[in-house]
């Protein structure tokens, strides 16, 4: 599954987001990459996360909020059940997949996390959070080359991810052969 997701990542710039995603995301992503100084980058990033996490159906949005609260309260079984209901009921909601992937990562269930990251990126190829999560899983597995590919892809989408920038610098310094 890791290799399939890596193959997906290297083709992301040629993929279109799911039609179910709000069109205002397009302009937010353009703004995010257009401002190299990051004057408003964090505000734009927050707006993107808010749009991803929200849902036009109030019940689905409430379920998402309940699942996020369950994760914060370390009620992981409850959170997993809610996220699983959400991806079953709303299979085109990329953030439901991403949140469950994050939960799986926290629980050390990397294969499950990668499966959900893959689906997230199929629906929302600009999901810099999912890309960063995949990179972290690759690092945990000792696959620095794949981590670097995922981190660099995330930075092309959102060049203002400071921790990701630092990780790329560190990976390039430790493994300069990946530059060639």
The tally of strands reads 0
Helix content: over 70%
The biggest beta sheet reads: none
Tally of helical segments? 10
Number of domains: 1
Task: Please characterize this protein's 3D structure.
This protein is mostly helical and 180 residues long. It has a single domain, classed as Tetratricopeptide repeat domain (Serine Threonine Protein Phosphatase 5, Tetratricopeptide repeat, Alpha Horseshoe). The protein is built from ten helices and no strands. It has helices at residues 2-10, 24-34, 41-53, 58-72, 76-89, 94-106, 110-123, 128-140, 144-157, 162-174. Helix 5 runs antiparallel to helix 6, helix 8 runs antiparallel to helix 9 (144-157) and helix 9 runs antiparallel to helix 10. The longest helix is centred in the middle third of the chain and has 15 residues, at 58-72. The protein is globular and about 45 Å long. The two termini are 25 Å apart. The relative contact order is 0.14. The mean pLDDT is 93.
């Amino acid at each position: 599954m890791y290799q399939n997701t890596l193959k997906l990542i290297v083709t992301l710039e040629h993929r279109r987001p799911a039609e179910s995603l709000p069109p205002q995301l397009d302009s937010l992503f353009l703004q995010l990459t257009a401002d190299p100084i990051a004057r408003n980058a964090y505000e734009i990033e927050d707006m993107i996360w808010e749009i991803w996490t929200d849902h036009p159906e109030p019940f689905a949005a409430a379920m998402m909020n309940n699942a996020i609260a369950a994760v914060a309260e370390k009620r992981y079984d409850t959170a997993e059940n809610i996220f699983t209901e959400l991806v079953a009921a709303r299979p085109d909601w990329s953030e439901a997949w991403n949140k469950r992937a994050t939960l799986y990562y926290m629980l050390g269930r990397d294969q499950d996390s990668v499966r959900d990251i893959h689906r997230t990126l199929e629906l929302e190829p600009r999901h810099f959070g999912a890309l960063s999560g995949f990179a972290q899983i690759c690092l945990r597995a000792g696959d620095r080359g794949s981590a670097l590919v995922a981190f660099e892809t995330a930075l092309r989408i959102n060049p203002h991810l400071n921790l990701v920038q630092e990780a790329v610098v560190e990976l390039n310094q430790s493994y300069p052969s990946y530059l060639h």
